[in-house]
Amino acid sequence: MEAFFVSTAIVAIAEIGDDFGIEQIRVLATIAEANDIEISSGCLFGDCGTCLTKILEGDVKYTHPTMVKPENGSCLPCSCVPVSDIVLKA
Ligand code: FES
To answer: Which of 50, 74, 81 to mutate to test the pocket of ligand 1 (most atoms within 8 A of CB)?
Structure first.
């Protein structure tokens, strides 16, 4: 396990896709994968809990309602985006 830091400034830049003006939502799992950080995954839609990851610092918001409801201090990286700089234990 290692700490994985995501800066919201970096995420904001990454969210601008190849087509100028079109923003793409990048969930934490996608950001981690792009940075060679391995997070276990299954459904990729918040229904199985396989990707449940501890949040060491920061906050997230969910892109859709999920079946699994993480406790405070944890998140489902397949289904959330950072709303602040964030450190995950991944
Ligand atoms: S991969 Fe299933 S909840 Fe994230």
So the answer is: 50
